[in-house]
Amino acid sequence: MEEVVYNFRNQTWLLSAHRAVFWKEEQALIVSDIHLGKSAHFRKAGIAVPAHIGQDDLYRLQKLITVYQPAQVIIVGDMFHSSHNNDVPLFKLWRQQFPKIRFKLVKGNHDIMKEQVYVELDVEVYDELQINEIHFAHEPCEEGDDTKYTFSGHIHPGVAVSGAGRQRLRLPCFYFGRNCSILPAFGRFTGLAMLDAEEADAVFVIANNSVLKIG
Amino acid sequence: MKNTASGWKVITDWLTARDRQPFAFQEEAWTYYLQGKSGLVNAPTGYGKTFSLFLGVVIDWINRHPKDYHSKTKNGLQLLWITPLRALAKDIARAMEEVLQELNIPWQVGIRSGDTPVSTRAAQKKNMPEVLLITPESLHLLIGQKEYPKVFTSLTTVVADEWHELLGTKRGVMIELGLSRLKGLAKKEGRSPLRIWGISATIGNLGEAMDVLLGTPDPEAVIVRAKLDKKIELQSILPDEIEKYPWAGHLGTRLLYKALPIVNESKTTLIFTNVRSQTEIWYQEILRQCPDLAGALALHHGSIDMELRIWVEEALHTGTLKAVVCTSSLDLGVDFRPVDTVIQVGSPKGVARFLQRAGRSGHQPGATSKIWFLPTHSLELVEAAALKSAIAQQIVESRMPVILAYDVLLQYLMTLAISDGFHAPEIWEEVKDTFCFRDMTEDEWEWTLAFLTTGGDALYSYDEFKKIDREGNFFICRSRMQAMRHRLHIGVIVSDAMLKVKFMGGGFIGMIEEWFIARMTAGDTFSLGGRILEFVMIKDMTVLVRKSNAKKAIVPSWMGGRLPLSPNLGKVLRETFNEALSGNTTEPELQVLQPLFNLQEYLSHVPKADELLIEMIHTRDGYHLFAYPFEGRLVNEVMATLLAYRLSKRTPITFSIAMNDYGFELLSDQPIPLTPDDVYELFSLDHLSIDLQASVNSTEMARRKFRDIAVIAGLIFQGYPGKHKQSRHLQSSASLLFNVFTEYDSQNLLLRQAFNEAFFYQMEEARLRESLDRIYNSKIVITYPEELTPFCFPIKVDSLREQLTSEKLEDRIKKMRPEF
Fold this sequence. Notes:
The complex is a heterodimer. Chain A contains 4 helices and 16 strands. Chain A is α/β, with parallel strands linked by helices. In chain A, strands 8, 9, 10, 11, 12, 13, 14, 15 and 16 form a 9-stranded mixed β-sheet that branches. A 7-stranded mixed β-sheet of chain A has the order 1-2-3-4-5-6-7. Chain A is globular, with a radius of gyration of 17 Å. Chain B is α/β, with parallel strands linked by helices. The longest helix of chain B is centred in the N-terminal third of the chain and has 19 residues, at 170-188.
């Protein structure tokens, strides 16, 4: 169950345990909140977190691209964590493996670098993006209707599940609300913000290498 | 020495003139000091422990300057006096100044702590006082200044006051490291060795306490004991009907009506509780039941405004208060003579702490210290009886020294790097000579250097790690920003993110934990510092409130208030239980509990001395296993985890684990695979070490320990004061760091430290072996009660729990539901 097929709004969505969604009809790989360069940013400030988290995140993205062979990669914000550091040239090099794939970034609050940088990286930058009935925006929003549904990120969603014997777990999740879905953070150097699963239409948790629907 | 030296005569004449006589232990300490020895003075508060060393230093000074000691000024720093509490420093400085003035010695006494104004610090830098009272943190800040060796060029003596409080903590390690540098400087400059003395209350391992302080074993070092008999009388406040007194989870206020007459009949009463939230509740409740006390009742704990605390302390001095509700914040030193009564609410969890608190009353030498014990639930009365017995047998617990605290070492090395920089071989020699780091290997030393210079062993070309520059064997921090940041976070006391609480119109009330206030919405009321406040909003990291007239309010609970029973008290507790269970005890506390034990026998079983009781109970919460080794919380915790691990090897199963000082609980959603035939192998000594390591790895214990470690080692960026926004891209939680280290750098020394702290530092494996062996060779009685028993109830209601599982995550989730 490394991925779950979710038919929603007459489209086919493959929810991957590697914290990404593949939109079959549009051949789009969708991820959010990669926070590239976060560990490098910390290290530059003298905080000795492991150095290769960013590299590893890119390696995982590379494997997903190899599996799904997408025509486009949509990043729903917070692609880079902060200002320029050496993870940017690293990404540039990495990017050259996939010259035919379009990278579309929907700007998030962490994406603070100059536009010229993204041009050099061959990444298209959008404030918001609309593909057919699907709207992409970094921060979750409540508005929407039968003809418009938002995919967002930003908050690194998680849910708490509990069971008999006072058991309790907190897990990252794909959250599908009435008008808006919230994607799990792709980068591994990210925390979790707990959401109320009751208000969602569907919640899929990520447990190791599985995706499980709950509620 | 006594008769020939002039200094001795000056001091004794001065004492005689004031109608006073030195205690024998003071003269003993002076003699050893004058011989140039180092050592430890063991004396309780209120018996002139300060003078046992301070006057020794003065005598020595007069001896060395017999002609001009009345006029000689600007002599540079002679005596460094390290104290754990800023409040203590003021009192001690006052006493020292008085002596110097009367002896007409123009020495300066200075204080250096977080409260010292910048102007005073600058003045001190130009002209150091002869005596400097300092906290461990401020000592490190001093070492973090440019040209710091100059400060110490005339230093002869260092005293670590209240050493028993610091030993066994990371602040103690800060002192060990600070001393190693001061000794190193003296050696390098060819001065005579420093005289290093500790002052300690009675603890079980005084000899070890001295070894830790002195670092390298010093065969000449001596322990001077005050041998003063302190009479302590303990009396419990007993509930009238034990059947109706709560089994668990209460605050003791039900017995307040019996405590009030005691308060009224006393001059001044200190009421000790174990956690800050309890002091708030007690304060409110006393005022409700006895409004007359308004104005004469105060509150004292670590989260209220410093000025208010100082006011309370002064009011205690002058005797204007009738009662103070407090936590361990009033445990230490400061002398409150008017206090004649102490009430301990709930178990104090340790003999030493209890003695210290009892000692707050009847401070005068020879006076009897009386302390009342007020139980918060029934079984705590057994602890009262155990305390009595421990005091009678003169059993006092040991404080285990902290070893291999890499986090503190990293912080210290950074401190050296931001001042003048350091030569690694020189510092390595000094560090290796401390007790804390004597078992550190050269590889580990290289790792710490690499951690600070290259950010670990990740040496790939893209890396931009910057902290300390390495120039051969010389290490220095050249970034002013890094240096400033480091200075702000020197110290090892880690608390949750705390926010200031202020009135809308200004006026600081106290501090509150961020997570508590995060749950509030505008209009909610809570109590702090004895006041009921209405939450308005959070602005600029400050909680704004207004006064509220509400009668009821949420009481903030502060984390980390739990104290484990000390191992020694654990043993006495077991003996006391045996006595209680025998049915023919004479202790009033135990007699009053008989109906409870009868109920326990009726529902389940009352274990004998050579038995271990296990209760298997099924409730709507799930399947419970309760076991009662009576070993104290620390051993029970490890034993519970070990048992859970061994049971989980039998079948895929998940446990939630809870424990207290008497026993522990394993709770599961499925029946627990345990029968009378296979129960003994759970306590077997076979493969113990391997099983222990595996069981700690499968719980969250290490993750919790990692929090402090990450902060101390400088991995958590705490921001600059007033500049919260700029640092937001450097925020991360300790829990997240724990995850990434576990995943990407599992050999990290700081991770290893977290695992060690979780298990092996808090208890000796030898003691666990002993306990397991005792149980293995005893009779294990398993009962299957229909309902909860008096023994298990306090454990079951405990909400602080560990998880241990051998099930697949996916399988567990399938049985669970989202939380609403």
